[in-house]
Every structure is written in structure tokens, then in C-alpha cells.
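Lab notebook, design round three. We kept the backbone fixed and only want residue identities now. Task for the bench partner: fill in a sequence for the structure below.
Input C-alpha cells:
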């Protein structure tokens, strides 16, 4: 900055400026000031039968970020005061009075929700986030669905990891199906296999591969029948494990139309939203990094703006115009 714009800025002021800009992005997004230059009707792709269709995926997830607790802030203040007490009185009098302690978090980690709307080729995407509760997540999903005119897409699949609150809020959107991420189903099946057929055994691997192949290509009913047959061979604690998997699957029956997804060419993995969870927290997570939750949200908002198609340049162009 000093070389290109002749602007000298200390680290602390620079941090405050960046966090302030992130908060401004959140405010602009909340006030619908970030205008998109694309809509769901432009998200075209080819279906397996060769037809051109418009398709938009909707997804959401939660990510944990490290936060600063009030106890940590009090400890830091006490350390600073102790250092000042050891200074000569004349030097101590030159120092500015410490500001009041900002309210800290009650826990060392907090959850931030992310949402994503994207097309088949990820050429169009809109990323949103909120540090508030699941009710705000529902409002965010509906707001961004309206911004991209989601109803304008012919095909509207939703993808989640199976969390109940995420599924419930996606159910509030005009979607064709809310699909359970296939990788998460695989994790549950493999865990049950490990506990009943042994860790790393060939028999366990073969069973997991077989039932997951059935779920992926033959449909829910044959898949569930294979689980029932497997459950009948278990005894004691292993049967309890089998019952847990059956209950998990039964509650999500409508979320597993994988054979139908194959015919339509739909993805069955939530990789894009999980990728967004990674890139938006890249600057947040790391050794000795802890944040006030509103500042963590602001930093993530800047990355979400960058990841949303066309919004980064439009936002800054508008911001510079307002300055002039």
C-alpha cells in the first residue's frame, strides 16, 4: 500500500479497516444493495438425454470458528496492566488509558452458517453467511433464493449433510428434492460396518461397497432391504449399532433418490458448500488465531463476496463511486 498508493498504515489500523469493510459488505448484502447480473434462468446445462435445461443447486452448512472468550480478554488485560506496573512512573504516565473490554464469547468456538446457490459448472454462484441462529439461516436462504430468482430454474435440487435444521430450511425453498450428501451416507455406513464386521476387514469393505452401490444405483427400497438383512445377523451391541443406522436411513428416506439423480444427471455430493466452508475460513483459522465473532463474520463476508460471481468488482466500483 505504501509503494502503490503512498498510504502508510499500522497493523492494528489495517485490521480495523479490513474488518470494517467486511461489516459494510454484510450491511450492503442485507439491504439488497449487491445487485446480481445473472439469474437462475441463465444457469444452463445438458441433461443426460441431450436436452438443454436450467439447473441451480441450493445448499447450506455450518462451520466452526475460533472465538475469544471474555475470560481470555480479562487475562490479556491483567497481563498488560502487570507489565505497566513494572514501568517507571514517568513512562507509565505517557501511556494512553486502556479502553474498556469489549464483550467476549461465552465459548471458545462458535458456529457460522453458510449458504450457496450455484449452477452445474460453478460458473454462477452466490455465497451467503450469518453468525446468527438457524432462524436467520432460513431468512438468508429465502433472501438469496429470491435474489437469483430460483423459481426460474427448471431443475432445483438441494444438497445437505443431513442436519435436521438445514434440511428443514431447505424444505422452505421451491426445490425439487433435498438430497442427502452421498459421502455423509457413506460415512455412516462405513462406521456401522467397522463396528459390526471389524475395522479394516475385507468382509466389512465388501459389504459397505455393495450396499452403497445399491443405494446409489438401484434405489432406496433394495438398499433398505439389504440393511434389514444385515441387521438380522447382528447380536448384542452390534444389533444396537445396526438399529442406529436403520433409524438414520429411515428418517432420511425422501433425501436418498440417488437412482433418480443419476437419470437426471444431478450431483449427489455437497462438495461445493464444503469447499466454501474451507476457503471462507482460511484467514480465520490457524495457530493462535481467535476472533470476536462479529469480526470473524466480517472477514468471511469479504471472501464470500469474492466467491460470488460478479459481485466483487461491482461492489468496489459502487463503493468508489460513492466516495467520489
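Proposed sequence:
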Amino acid at each position: 500500500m505504501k509503494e502503490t498508493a503512498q498510504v502508510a498504515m499500522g497493523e492494528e489500523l489495517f485490521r480495523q479497516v479490513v474488518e470494517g469493510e467486511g461489516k459494510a459488505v454484510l450491511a450492503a448484502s442485507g439491504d439488497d444493495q449487491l445487485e446480481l447480473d445473472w439469474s437462475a434462468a441463465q444457469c444452463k446445462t445438458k441433461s443426460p438425454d441431450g436436452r438443454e435445461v436450467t439447473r441451480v443447486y441450493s445448499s447450506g452448512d455450518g462451520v466452526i470458528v475460533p472465538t475469544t472468550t471474555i475470560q481470555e480478554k480479562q487475562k490479556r488485560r491483567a497481563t498488560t496492566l502487570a507489565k505497566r506496573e513494572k514501568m517507571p512512573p514517568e513512562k507509565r504516565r505517557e501511556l494512553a488509558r486502556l479502553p474498556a473490554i469489549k464483550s467476549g464469547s461465552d465459548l471458545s468456538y462458535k458456529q457460522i452458517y453458510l449458504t450457496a446457490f450455484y449452477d452445474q459448472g460453478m460458473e454462477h454462484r452466490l455465497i451467503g453467511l450469518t453468525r446468527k441462529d438457524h432462524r436467520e439461516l432460513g431468512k438468508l436462504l429465502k433472501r438469496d433464493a429470491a435474489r437469483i430468482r430460483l423459481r426460474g430454474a427448471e431443475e432445483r435440487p438441494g444438497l445437505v449433510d443431513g442436519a435436521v435444521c438445514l434440511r428443514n430450511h431447505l424444505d422452505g425453498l421451491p426445490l425439487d428434492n433435498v438430497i442427502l450428501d452421498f459421502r455423509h451416507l457413506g460415512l455412516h455406513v462405513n462406521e456401522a460396518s467397522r463396528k459390526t464386521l471389524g475395522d479394516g476387514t475385507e468382509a466389512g469393505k465388501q459389504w459397505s461397497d455393495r450396499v452403497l452401490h445399491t443405494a446409489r444405483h438401484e434405489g432406496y427400497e433394495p438398499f433398505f432391504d439389504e440393511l434389514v438383512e444385515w441387521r438380522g445377523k447382528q447380536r448384542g451391541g452390534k444389533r444396537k449399532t445396526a438399529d442406529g443406522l436403520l433409524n438414520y436411513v429411515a428418517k432420511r428416506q425422501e433425501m436418498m433418490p440417488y437412482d433418480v439423480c443419476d437419470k437426471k444427471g444431478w450431483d449427489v455430493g455437497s462438495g461445493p458448500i464444503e469447499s466454501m466452508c474451507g476457503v471462507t475460513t482460511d484467514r480465520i483459522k490457524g495457530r493462535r488465531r481467535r476472533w470476536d465473532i462479529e469480526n470473524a463474520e466480517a472477514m468471511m463476508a469479504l471472501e464470500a463476496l469474492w466467491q460470488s460471481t460478479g459481485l466483487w468488482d461491482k461492489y468496489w466500483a459502487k463503493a468508489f463511486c460513492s466516495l467520489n
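Keep this in mind before ordering anything: The chain has two domains: 29-69+104-180+269-315, 182-268.
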